[in-house]
Amino acid sequence: MSDLRALLIPRRLFLMALFAGFVIWCALSLRWDWLPQYLPLALEGLWRTIWILVVTVVLGFALAVPLGLAQAAGPWYLAAPARVFCTVIRGTPLLLQIWLLYYGLGSLFPQYPWIRGSELWPYLRQAWPYAVLALTLSYAGYEGEVMRGGFASVQKGQLEAARAFGMPRFTIFRRIWLPQAIRNVLPTLGGETILQLKATPLVATITVIEIYAVSSRVRADTFIVYEPLLLLALVYMIIAGLIALMFRWVENRVPSRRREG
Amino acid sequence: MEALLDTLGLAEAASLLSLEPPGWGANLLRGLVNSLQIALGAFGFGLLIGLGGAYGKLYGGPLLRDLLAIYTTVIRAVPELVLILILYYVGSDLINQAATAMGYDRVEISGVVAGIWVLGVVQGAYATEVLRGAIQAIPPGQLEAARAFGMPPLMTLRRVTIPAMMGFATPGLANLWLIATKDTALLAIVGFSELTLETRQAAGSTRAYFTFFLAAGGLYLLITLFSGVIFSRIEKWARRGQPSLREGGR
């Protein structure tokens, strides 16, 4: 209720009226006649964007857990490679990583006959495995660093108590350490997932047709510049808003005691 | 030296990367200089916007604050690539309309200026949030004391606010600088010949993809590591008057 009342202040009503005017102006005076023709392609692209986002976030997070654990508590021969991996991923542009994997590996694989003959070859000839691999590694690199902080900030006493009760090490990890580490990083995780959403259009440069690539095609086919881009920005804002809402919902469900002192 | 390269099997890579014309090293370095130029310009432009935005958010009227909230939210929710395209077309359209209105011919906008404008607007949204937090972290007594002594606002900004917030703002600004250097790679997609695009052209014409992409990655990594050293020095300098938080805590 209070959210609604905050919107009903005169200046906000004025801003909303301005925005509504802008939307109506867009609808009436810009060209939208291309929309019905490209709508099926756009929906397919939207579906592919979301699919890539979900797959890379899940896989990347699965990789980030051992990366973070190795850095927070591992022996040096595991911690050092994990740290190098995170530094390299975070220190170079994602676009460069995507191109390195797609063009580099893509030009390397055909040289080996056993790869060409293998069952995987029909997939390796397409672009999306490289896109998924690059985005997964990137998310793992950023998240590994976040998870390191998450693991390190779980209070020592909890782990000691679990050990004192004779819990096996894996059970400690599964029941005590990991859940609290994830709870610690939940707010950061939401932000990182939105960053990952904003990274997905880069895969359009290696011929994966997702929503951004569809808008580029509309621009190239019809020479209409602003309309597809504005619609695209709106679509991304809606997805980002949904991600933020989803993470807020999860955060509210997780029982948490604000750290005192 | 050459014998060493030969034994490591890197002789071919070294000749491809050499600075003399058959090698592509000079192209990569030219791209690197372009990238750094844009990153520096965009970072500076973003800082100016950020300082203005932070002041607006903290001390501005309600309408200004709402507008700034919309600016930072929209910029942070839309992918940089889409923003770059929109701002690029909007910027060149506006300049060309202004030029034709004033009776000049259509002008070609240089890639460097376009890149700085586009990335600067994006950086400004993030810088606004970083600087706002840093200004809020200054003990209010310091600003009140400056006002009580009758310091004009600009002098307060220069002598009190900026030096006092430097320590709080440096980690966030270091992050922003790294984002700026990496975001310059996105300008490759609008066809500006910075490091990533030069690398791709070199790799495409020699088919030595790994050599060139790894070399470019090494250059980016060098910038990152070097900036890390510089920024930790700046932070140490900016915090020179503050007691260390290490003791007592934890």
Automatic annotation (TrEMBL), chain A:
Q: Which PANTHER family match?
A: ARGININE ABC TRANSPORTER PERMEASE PROTEIN ARTM (PTHR30614:SF10), MEMBRANE COMPONENT OF AMINO ACID ABC TRANSPORTER (PTHR30614)
UniProt entry tagged with the keyword Nucleotide-binding: no
Taxonomy, superkingdom? Bacteria
As for subcellular location, the record says:
Cell inner membrane; Cell membrane
Any stretches that span the bilayer, and where are they?
12-30, 50-70, 229-250
Keyword flag Membrane: yes
Q: Name one Pfam family in it.
A: BPD_transp_1
Q: What is the lineage of its organism?
A: Bacteria, Pseudomonadati, Pseudomonadota, Alphaproteobacteria, Rhodobacterales
Give the keywords, sorted.
Cell inner membrane, Cell membrane, Membrane, Transmembrane, Transmembrane helix, Transport
How is this protein named in the record? Amino acid ABC transporter membrane protein 2, PAAT family
According to the entry, every stretch annotated as the ABC transmembrane type-1 domain falls at 46-247
Q: Which family does it belong to?
A: Belongs to the binding-protein-dependent transport system permease family. HisMQ subfamily.
As given in the record, the signal peptide range reads: none
The UniProt entry lists membrane topology as: Multi-pass membrane protein
InterPro entries, alphabetically? AA_ABC_transptr_permease_3TM (IPR010065), ArtM/GltK/GlnP/TcyL/YhdX-like (IPR043429), MetI-like (IPR000515), MetI-like_sf (IPR035906)
UniProtKB/TrEMBL annotation, chain B:
**Where do the TM regions start and end?**
36-56, 68-89, 109-127, 160-180, 208-231
Q: Which Gene3D superfamilies match?
A: MetI-like (1.10.3720.10)
The UniProt entry lists membrane topology as: Multi-pass membrane protein
Name the Pfam families on file. Answer: BPD_transp_1 (PF00528)
Q: Give the main location.
A: membrane
Give the originating organism: Roseovarius mucosus DSM 17069
Please state where this protein is localized: Cell inner membrane; Cell membrane
| Full protein name | Amino acid ABC transporter membrane protein 1, PAAT family
**Record keywords:** Cell inner membrane, Cell membrane, Membrane, Transmembrane, Transmembrane helix, Transport
Spell out the GO cellular component terms annotated for this protein, sorted alphabetically and separated by semicolons: ATP-binding cassette (ABC) transporter complex
Location of the ABC transmembrane type-1 domain: 32-231
Q: Does the keyword Acetylation apply?
A: no
Concerning InterPro entries, the annotation shows:
AA_ABC_transptr_permease_3TM, ABC_transp_permease_HisMQ, MetI-like, MetI-like_sf
Q: Name the SUPFAM superfamilies for this protein.
A: MetI-like (SSF161098)
